[in-house]
Design brief:
A hairpin with a 2-residue loop joins strand 3 and strand 4. The protein has one helix and five strands. Strands 1, 2, 3, 4 and 5 form a five-stranded antiparallel β-sheet that branches. The protein is globular, with a radius of gyration of 12 Å.
């Protein structure tokens, strides 16, 4: 994937979605990491990807968060 294609996929997440979305495992609120384009579930230790501005809320698609990883950039 080229750099311009990657930039095209970084559509901003509608902040109103954060009012409704919760972690599918814990049902806890999520945090938005704008830099990585992910929704973070601190309690589950998972990061859900956002592709083309659409959150992918499938556990199988989520990335395990490394506990030593720096905290997310809040949106």
């Amino acid at each position: 994937m080229t750099e311009s294609t990657t930039a095209d996929r970084r559509q901003p997440l509608d902040p109103r979605l954060l009012e409704f979305l919760v972690c599918p495992l814990t049902k806890e609120p999520l945090r938005y990491d704008r830099e990585r384009q992910e929704l973070i579930s601190d309690k589950a230790g998972l990061a859900f990807p956002i592709r083309d501005g659409i959150p992918i809320m499938l556990v199988d698609e989520a990335r395990q968060i490394d506990p030593d990883e720096p905290g997310p950039t809040l949106g």
